[in-house]
Amino acid sequence: MQIHSPQFKQRAAEALVDPGLQKALGRAKQGFQVKRAAAVAGLPEFEALRDVGRDIKNHSLANLDFYLEEFAARVEKAGGHVHWCSTADEARAAVLAICQKAGAKTVTKGKSMISEELGVNEHLEKHGITPVETDLGEYILQIRDEGPSHIIAPAFHLNREDWEETFRRVHTDLPADRVFSERRDIMTEARARLRQKFLTADVGITGANFLIAETGSSVIVTNEGNGDLTQTLPKVHIALASIEKMVPTLEDATSLLRLLARSATGQDFSVYTTFSTGARRAAELDGPQEYHVVLLDGGRSNMLGTEYQEMLRCIRCAACMNHCPVYGAVGGHSYGWVYPGPMGSVLTPTLVGVDKAGHLPNASTFCGRCESVCPVKIPLPKMMRHWREREFERHLSPATTRSAMGLWAWLAKRPEVYRAATGLAVRALKLLGRKTGSFAALPLAGGWTAGRDLPAPQAGGTFMAQYAKSKRQ
Amino acid sequence: MSRDAILAGIRRGLRRGELPEDQKAMLRTRMARPPRHLMPARSRLAHAGQVALFVANLEKEFATVTRLTALSEVPEAVAEFLAAQNLPPQLAIAPHPELTGLAWEERPMLRIEARPGQAQDFASLQHGFAGIAETGTLMLPSHPTRPTTLNLLPDTAMVLLRTSRVVGAYEEAWDLLRAENSDSRTGGFMPRNVMLVTGPSRSADIEQTLELGAHGPRRLHVFLLDDTQ
């Protein structure tokens, strides 16, 4: 997938004034936050399970080489094949070779972020093979030639009217004046379209939420059932997985699954959680005749042993972006690559380089909500801070930022001057903002206030003044 | 070769070489006897309580349930359910001896075919392996007598399950599979495909609003046969 992360500021500014997008983003609270909170409240053990989840992933990563080899051996024993790929190029080539060997004309696809990372669709198309996205959200994005804006709800940025308009435009064999009286009607139309595709596809490509060493299985989680139809009906199934999806046993995967759906959609469990192990067995009446796992490193092994290792625990639930005030304001496309929100702000610089994605870790208020909802307790703000340091060290941050930081550092090293200056600033801002309680614009901070208001200081003065006052009481 | 490059990269990151044999042996033991982690208290009940929780969770997830007291009641219950849903009296059933052995001929109006699922199927009847009370989840492992497509292609998916097959937590269902299933290819217990199904197909991709009936079955109905009374 093409990288637009260097244009983050421009894209975010556009997103803030896009009324359709802002309407869609307004659904994050009811659509995700409230549902997650209810699911978590329904499981008293949830907090304790977050520790379990963290420990399982840490154990898996600490022994990753061992478990990958065990996994591969079991896949082969079950009649499958593992394709080890260091780079995106190798993985694309492996997918294409499997499809070409199968004589594939069309390929159905379940939702896979690795596929987005690799740009599988473009690669297949270039070689005359037609990929068909079957996840409802991915289906409409493929029609509209857009990338996903969210890792579990790819069409999060679209509103119902966008769906209706797009379906009318491309499903031209249906009556133009048909009525979509409910959302269900839109879904039913897509279902009917994709049925035929499922039945006639030569290869099915899915992602994998987990790989299990004990059994040599890949696991997918869906609500629609599209992933299962994709991997069951064609004669070849390809599971795309990055190396950090590895867990040792079914029990380990089970504990993580208890966290996944609750954190993602607020369901207790997704509708279809499916474990695939090898190719069709001798007397079986259905299932794929070939099973391939395309195993991608793609920069992950470089993260081991660094301050970003903990990011490899991520189970891609999207809770961090669902609770992020920045994501909630600018949406997923602003981030400019596959992974948006806090997890993307950490992962994207590691996978594509901080020179291209340096803006992303800066797009955070460090409010800490992402870390507080992360099911495997990834310290996302801390890692974004590491990126900011790296960016600063490598002189990648703009001159204005650097001189402002220099000024601040000079002040911070002189407490008396610092207190005098901040005390003065607080009084001035309080005076100026006493009518509205906030500032829509400030001199020298136009870039900052263009997208948000600065609250005016309330009674009590600076933090130090309030602290001193509370000590006296 | 990429395999070696990836493994070497991992070991470089972890600042060690290949694991020594004794540690590998320890990890192999962990895989052979997988430790159970925290199992939520909600399913730690006497069996009758687990069955009640299983049914309550099935219904919470928009599945429906008919309780039966004898296997022989199945054909009549299936016929009645299809009629109540205004569905034609025809269905694909899993080629499992327990289902094919039923006295379907007593319901001559019902058209039965023992085979995998097909795209135009109105209804199917699968043979359930286990039920998991924790979330109202069905465990449906693939087998020559349990085709996977029956879970996916028909508009209405029906499953026969005995109450004796209802367990509390997922871990207990895995243990049933470990104890009872033998895979023809690997000699291990894991079949080609294990589906954990929780309710009928759905999507919230349009405006984050849940709608039933995405690509899989629009209805999920469980015939729960009481064999533990």
Helix and strand sequence of chain B:
HHHEHEHEEEEEEHEEEE
Can you give the mean pLDDT of chain B?
A: 97
Q: What is the CA-CA span between the terminal residues of chain B?
A: 60 Å
Q: How many separate helices of chain A? A: 24
Biggest β-sheet: strands ordered side by side in the sheet of chain B: 1-12-7-4-2-3
Quaternary form: heterodimer
How many β-strands of chain A, per DSSP? 12
Give average pLDDT of chain A, whole number: 94
Number of helices of chain B: 6
Instruction: Report the major sheet of chain B.
Output: 6 strands, parallel
The helix/strand class of chain A is alpha/beta
Structural class of chain B: alpha/beta
**CATH level 3 topology of the largest domain in chain B:** Rossmann fold
What percent of residues of chain B adopt helix (DSSP H or I)? 25-40%
* Share of residues in helices of chain A: 40-55%
Rg calc of chain A: 25 Å
Please tell me what the overall shape of chain B is: elongated
What percent of residues of chain A are in strands? 5-15%
Write up this protein.
The complex is a heterodimer of chains A (473) and B (229). Chain A has 473 residues and is α/β, with parallel strands linked by helices. Chain A is 51% helix and 11% strand. Chain A contains 24 helices and twelve strands. Chain A has helices at residues 8-16, 19-25, 28-41, 46-62, 64-77, 88-101, 113-118, 120-126, 136-144, 160-170, 183-200, 226-232, 250-264, 319-322, 325-330, 341-352, 354-357, 359-362, 369-373, 380-393, 399-412, 415-432, 446-449, 463-472, and strands at residues 81-85, 106-109, 130-133, 203-206, 210-212, 217-222, 236-242, 246-247, 272-276, 290-296, 438-439, 454-455. In chain A, a hairpin with a 4-residue loop joins strand 5 (210-212) and strand 6 (217-222). Chain A is globular and about 80 Å long. Chain A starts with 7 loop residues before the first helix and ends with a helix. Chain B has 229 residues and is of the alpha/beta class. Chain B has two domains: 1-35, no CATH class; 46-225, 3-Layer(aba) Sandwich (Rossmann fold). The interface between A and B is large, with 106 and 82 residues. Strand 9 of chain A pairs antiparallel with strand 9 (193-197) of chain B.
